[in-house]
Design goal:
ten-stranded mixed beta sheet; 33% helix; binds threonylcarbamoyladenylate; binds magnesium ion
């Protein structure tokens, strides 16, 4: 076994915090059965104590021991999408205690696909609680360097795993109620979930359980962000007095000093998005203007993150 993995598993057993790569974003991990470790995790994240956190596992069978009721729909989705960028909300078993679920009667579980995450989870052998490894409310990290920049010495170890392939957080599907509901869109689309289940899924009901991804101004850079239709981009740039940063599909007005070109493919866009927002945020401009992608189903997850970045 890789020495870093062995050390990481040892740190987790001792109640430490280990940041690790997943295919979606980097997670900040703690032993999900250890209340002191999870309390420290929340303190470092500066996250309110009543927010639930996702528990990660190496294999499906272990993940399902944290649920007291595993409906057929959960087995189907696990078979089709795990390991992968999908989180299931299920009715909790006694293993998922209040400090993990925010006192709710359900638990979020996920089996990630990244090889380093898998090795760590297998070496640790239990559930690892892991929110994205950023401070509460800021953009999720998609590289080990992002994690170090955000959390620095507050984490005991950061495992290196290259840039996160997917680049945005997992799709969350709530299966704890009568009908499946997508609480957070992601790479796994509602249409793919419907196809796997053979039934319709709703997209975020108003009575959805608390989840911090549902709060306004989440995943946001410090610079004010605005989503602008392509035809209005040059006009809005001209109206700003100070420096402006732009995220666009093609070169904006040539006076714009800070700009990044984004791919026209939604998955390639998601892969680059958070690193791009961080880079433009660091230019300390008056605003970040983002050329709006088309409002079509393939762009749902990216548009969700862009709207949140606008706050
Ligand atoms: O891709 C991901 O999901 C990443 C990687 C590290 O796995 N994790 C992640 O965690 O994005 P976090 O904590 O930043 O966002 C998880 C979302 C939050 O909005 C949280 O409130 C929600 O999942 N959540 C967790 N458990 C829940 C539950 N039992 N019921 C409803 N929402 C839940
Ligand atoms: Mg997060």
């Amino acid at each position: 076994m890789n020495r870093d993995i062995a050390r990481a598993a040892q740190l987790l057993r001792a109640g430490g915090l280990v940041a690790f790569p997943t295919e979606t974003v980097y997670g900040l991990g703690a032993d999900a059965s250890n209340p002191q470790a999870v309390a420290r995790l929340y303190a470092v994240k500066r996250r309110p104590a009543d927010h639930p956190v996702i528990v990660h596992f190496d294999i499906t069978e272990r993940a399902f021991t944290w649920a007291r009721d595993v409906p057929t729909a959960a087995r189907r989705l696990a078979k089709r999408f795990w390991p992968g960028p999908l989180t299931l909300i299920l009715k909790r078993s006694a293993l998922a205690r209040d400090f993990i679920t925010g006192g709710q009667d359900n638990v979020g579980v996920r089996v990630p696909a990244h090889p380093v995450a898998h090795e760590l989870l297998a070496a640790f052998g239990g559930g690892i609680a892991a929110p994205s490894a950023n401070r509460f409310g800021l953009v999720s990290p998609t590289s080990a360097a992002h994690v170090r920049a955000d959390l620095g010495a507050d984490v005991d170890l950061v495992l290196e795993g290259g840039p996160s392939e997917v680049g945005i957080e997992s799709t969350i599907v709530d299966l704890s109620r009568a009908k499946p509901v997508v609480l957070r869109p992601g790479k796994v689309t509602a249409a793919e979930i419907e196809a796997a289940l053979g039934e319709a899924v709703a997209e975020k009901a108003s009575d959805a359980p608390r989840h911090s991804g549902g709060l306004e101004r989440h995943y946001a850079p410090r610079t004010p962000v605005r989503l602008v239709p392509a035809y209005r981009l040059d006009r809005e740039i001209a109206q700003l007095k100070d420096k402006v940063a732009v995220l666009a599909f093609s070169r904006p007005d040539e006076r714009v000093e800070y700009w990044l070109r984004m791919p026209r493919d939604p998955q390639a866009y998601a892969h680059k998005l958070y690193a791009a927002l961080r880079e433009l945020d660091s230019a300390q401009c008056e605003a970040i203007l983002i050329e709006a992608p088309p409002a079509t189903p393939e762009w749902v997850a990216v548009l969700d993150r862009l709207r949140r970045a606008c706050g």
